[in-house]
Amino acid sequence: MEGKIVVVTSGKGGVGKTTATASIGAALALEGKKVAVVDMDIGLRNLDVVMGLENRIVFTIVDVVHGKCRLRQAAIKDRRIDNLYLIPASQSDNKDAVSPDQMRELAKELKQEFDFVLMDCPAGIERGFENAVAAADYAVVVCIPEVSSVRDADRVIGLLYSKGITPWLVVNRIVPEMVERGDMLSHSDVVEVLSVELLGLIPMDDQVVVSTNTGQPLVMQKGSKAGDAFRRVALRLNGHADLPVEVPRAQKGFWEKIGFTRR
Amino acid sequence: MFNQWFKKLAGKPDSKDVAKKRLQFALIYDKLEVSENILQDLQHDLIEVISRYFDFDQKALKLEIERHNDFSALVFNAPILSAKRARPAPPRAARPGA
Predict the structure, then answer these.
(1) Interface with A, mutate which of B23, B24, B25 (most A CBs under 10 A)
(2) What is the pTM of this model?
(3) A204 touches chain B (CB under 8 A)
């Protein structure tokens, strides 16, 4: 069976695309799927450091596209998780180094080789976005509950629809205490504004920074709330579409439960 | 929780409701934004169609998008000089019934 190509995008930068790509990719591989995560941010690569594979880069996606190496030579195998591969971006080229047509061509080969291919899209809606989206069958739009991010997500969702892709939404960095206080857009506010299908809700989690610091996969950190939420996203992508979306809840101590707030 | 009650009593809206309203308005306005090129193309096409039926002052015409609080309108002003009596056949195939 042919693999599925999923682009992870957001419009705005810094909302957690790369973390989402690495985490969903790792979770899918832990589910037993053969997964490639592809860094499409040519010139500003970061998926390699987030995954802790920065020391093993030999060839990049630009080399594959230009026929300087074969796909298998550029795909770095993750030694901690079976079936997980990274195809890194090059740091010395820019987004024009590959074209949407070349990506569509590469996609045919990727689909033969892998069950899931996750494209980590760069911020913006220019060439880098076009390249990342060109070959995608599915799209995951990551946004955080902030006005600027939701607005950009809306723009990107419009662009995806115009390319015939129906996107799913992941709302990242939810702080349940702030939502309860009425100081953060709730996931239902975001979904109402964007009117798009929800794939997952990820709570704010300090473990994300720790995991990025060390280059360890977030989904392997025990007790990571964000890691668990990403695993559920992966399950939903991997045929368990009926798995309910879990809403992050505030953890309350005794005093909060009876109506006192800290601060 | 008590802090929230005080906030509610003071009549201050939740900041997330402010965010949601601002977002919804921003998205509406973003979608109404039309590029200069599109307007110019539209004007060009309108002139072509209207001049089949009317002589009008092509220099005085104005095509604008007027924004109001809850709607936007496309306003096209073309001062008519005279109507054309015998009008040329439309370029497309004859319409049914015509």
Answers:
(1) B23
(2) 0.82
(3) no
DSSP-assigned letters across all residues of B25-42: HHHHHHHH---HHHHHHH
Collect all residues of chain B within an 8 Å Cβ-Cβ radius of residue A260. Answer: 1-2
Q: pLDDT tens across A90-143, in order?
A: 999 999 999 999 999 999 999 999 999 999 999 999 999 999 999 999 999 999
In chain B, the number of structural domains is 1
As given in the structure block, the two tokens for residue A88 are: 């890194």
Residue A232 lies in a domain: yes
CATH number at residue A174: 3.40.50.300
What's the Cα-to-Cα distance from B28 to each of A99, A148, A153, A156, rounded to whole Å?
Answer: 33, 14, 14, 15
Q: What range does the domain containing A125 cover?
A: 4-242
Choice among A36-40, A150-154, A177-181, B77-81 with the minimum mean pLDDT: B77-81
